[in-house]
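Reproducibility note. Readers wishing to regenerate the assembly model reported in the main text can use the exact inputs given here. Chain order matters: entities are listed in the order in which they were concatenated for prediction.
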Amino acid sequence: MVFSSLLFLFLFLPLTLLLYACSPRKLKNLILFLMSLVFYAWGEPVYVALMLVSTVTDYAIGLLLERTGNSPGKRKLLLIGSVVVNLGVLGFFKYYAFLARSLEALTGISLPDWDPPLPIGISFYTFQTLSYTIDVYRREVAAQRSFIRFGCFVALFPQLIAGPIVRYREIEADLNRHRTIISRHLVEGSRLFLVGLGKKVLLANNIGALWDEIHAMPASELTAGTAWLGLVAFAMQIYFDFSGYSDMARGLGRMFGFQFPINFNYPYISQSITEFWRRWHMTLGSWFREYVYIPLGGNRVGRWKLFRNIFVVWLLTGLWHGASWNFVWWGLYFAIVLAAEKGFVLSWLRRVPRVIRHLYACTLILLGWVLFAVESPGAMGDYFCALIGLRGGGYDVQTLYGLTSYGGVLVLCVIGSLPVWKGIAMKMEGPVRRRLYDGAMAAACMAILLLSIAYLVDSTYNPFLYFRF
Amino acid sequence: MAALSGKLNKLYLGLLGLLFFGLGCSMLLLPAKPFSELENRYLAAFPAITWEGIRSGEFGRTMERYAADQFPLRDRWVTMKAWVEVSLNKKENNEVYAGKDGYLLQKLPEPSISLNQQMAYVRSFAEAVGIPVRFLLAPNSAEILSGKLPAYAPVSDQKAYIRQAYRLLWDAAGGVDVYETLRAHRDQSIYYRTDHHWTALGAYYAYQAYARQADLIPFAQDAFRIDKVSNTFYGTLSAKSKFRHVKPDEIDIWLPKETSYSHKVTHLDDGTELDSLYDWEKLNERDQYPVFLGGNHALTAIETSEAPDRTLLLIKDSYAHAMVPFLAQHYNKICMVDLRYLNMSMKQYAAEINADEVLILYNAATFGSDDQLVKLGW
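Running the prediction on these inputs yields the following structure tokens for the assembly.
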């Protein structure tokens, strides 16, 4: 099930809220856990078992770690066990086919030809449970004694399938306290949720259609104008898609009394790539920083080790996004840029006007998206050539048609990626302004909801009109 | 954050709650609609709850479809979306362009079957059947009225496609070229604004071109009385795109002034009969184009008293329906065949009905992807 479906919005969500509100305190977490399992099983009836296995394993390991407080040997073993199970599961289901193919291409050794399907959310929940066992091992959190509460941490449907990656310590307090549905949370949560829904359904899906059209054309025939237009369209699509989902997750969490971490902080206003990665998919960044970068020494090491650390983390970041070489290149691309920035670029950037910094960052971000969005190396090369105008001239009819058709949506996207509303919200102090703000938010959210319903219904509109006859 | 002002937010939450619970309940509790007239398809029914269905995910998928198909006020929501698209200056929705002068134009699809292949079927039939065969490939409105396409919209080259098709006839059959004549009259209402078919006027010009090819004397325009039978026609293109800002079409029919021909139309697949070329009841349905001959049937026989004693075998798509009223005055029997619904040899059938001539009539957009032409080779 996905958030942006009519079934979820009008059956699952109201039902869950109702059940949660009406159930006695003791059963609230159980209800959440069970409904989350239903949510997950809806799309993947079989793989819910896999997730449960991961959950049970790490729950047990967490308790055992606590019980073996005094034997470092045993603790280490337990930790390794957890890492092996989690990464093993992730590695097999997500990366087996990729690794097998690459190994064969490189060395000719051929492994059995399995192609396991990718269980939804596996990249998220394995990282979450792993963060739990590592934190318990490090004695930074107490193990969770209640299986239901732990199950909620892992499986909570708001963040289960598309993040943000929530570390246990971030919701430990919320898990353990008694939560009820209060109207303040509903208001804040619904606002966040609806904004996210709008981002996904109204902006991402829309501008994504432009990218799909341009992507469908052979890259070797694109003019520079069309190529750049397509790239901007993709950049907007992926941002609004991903940040929309994160907003929906946070909004839903809020409604049930949880405070999930923010995952996107207007990444496209960055003035450097270093800044970009502090604003994009922030929970992944902080997970890698906490569990890979810092253990490797972080930036408190010599220059070469620093570069090594950066490369390792970005290689993994790229790989996390997908089991394909273009994601690896994407990660390494940023590794190189970040190393350069740490080396000398940042100090150079400080001396240029702000506009140049924005231009620099945006260009590098967009170029990175080529690596992300175009999978085959041949098409990738063609696309880069198109961007610098090596194929067609400046622009053509295709560019103009794209611009005139999607100009409206593009403008909305650009505005949406700027912290305009946040700036306005900051100035709304005092009772009168507060009321104005609340009214405007309410109206905007209702409008977004209605429009989103329209788009969602339309996407299933499938007339069979003897059209070809 | 400071405490949120009470009343306004309670109102907001109330409205939200009403919407969410209200729509959800209607979706579940209102009786399910089995068929959508607007979309011309069967809507999903509530899935059976079986263990196997749940395990395989089929139950989940069907529930999703059910929620979407049975969503209350479906039609209104789709229209809202089309309205938003128009406001955003999008000129295209669901493969239909909103063109100038209130014209909706079909986005011409790429042919999925090679033209060489299609024409090979036509040729093989024409060579084997032994009677004169003519081939008419009609251009679509997006081609002839390309000036009405939205700015910068990509145009596909149907003219070259049609030319090539005629070239590939290799004299096995006579090609009826209607392109130039339609292009010459493009400022007249030769295509519907909201439908992908040509109007009676457009079919008339094509008929004139056909008559020249077939050595017939076409009836002049003033031999007909033009009757406007509808001004509320919203055709396939408006249904597909849901663009509601266009005016509806008018349907004109051309009735011969002079002689009182009497027609009998028999649908040989279900036995229904009409005593005229027009099925007036269709004007009460959403799609009014089937007023011409009652729409698509596998096999239709059109008998016209007072017409010369010749039999025409007409292998066609729905473009032919607008043209038959003109052809009917030259053949006392026309047998109309829709290859989709028939699995018989056309050669044999032509012999069975003692056909004197054959006309193969398609519109170019359909022709490019019609996979039934292989039957011509049987």
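We highlight two features of this model. The radius of gyration of chain A is 24 Å. Confidence is low (pLDDT under 50) at residues 465-469 of chain A.
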